[in-house]
Amino acid sequence: MASDRNGLEILSRSECMRLLESTPIGRVGVSIGALPVILPVNFAVVDGDIVIRTSAGTKLDAAAINLVVAFEVDGFDPLWHSGWSVLVQGVGEEVTDPDELQRLRHVRLAPWTGVNGHFVRISTQILSGRRLEAVGAGNVSR
After folding, report:
1. Which residue of 101, 111, 129, 131 has the fewest C-beta atoms within 10 A of its own C-beta?
2. Which of 40, 44, 49, 51 is nearest to 21 (CA)?
3. For strand 25-32 and strand 35-46, is the pairing parallel, antiparallel, or unpaired?
């Protein structure tokens, strides 16, 4: 098991992908006017990439101009002081190919707004993850 300089376990690409596929909610980070914005989204993993469905606005605007975005998911247990985090850094792009759109419409992924949204794909070329292992019950401060 590899660890980073802080003692966190460095997760393999396959473990990162498994964790991405285990949770339906993540956060996408984009830059708007040189300021960071982080937005919660529901998503699916399709062909190894992140796919979100969104209406017109911030996320779609970033994807339309092929900006580099960050996407993060995590899980934690505050009682045991344990958890994990997976970070994707990649280019966001709106899916416009009619065949691909037809295929994505069959993915279980509804836009939060409740209206037909646009599909945005985020490549997972840069993928990293860390895990903090649980500490013993006697070591947990209350």
Report:
1. 101
2. 44
3. antiparallel
d(Cα 42, Cα 53) in Å, to the nearest integer? 8
Which of 104, 38, 93 shows the shortest CA–CA distance to 60? Answer: 93
- CA angle (65 as vertex; 63, 66 as ends), nearest 5: 60
Displacement of CA 130 from its chain's centroid (Å): 14
Q: What does pTM read for this prediction?
A: 0.83
Cα–Cα–Cα angle for 37, 41, 45, nearest 5°? 120
SS3 85: strand
- What are 38-51's pLDDT values in tens digits? 888 889 999 999 99
What residue spans of the chain are helical by DSSP H? 13-20, 58-64, 98-104
What are the phi and psi torsion angles at 130 (to 5°)? -135, 150
How confident is the model over 40-88, as pLDDT tens digits?
888 999 999 999 988 776 666 666 666 788 999 999 988 888 999 999 9
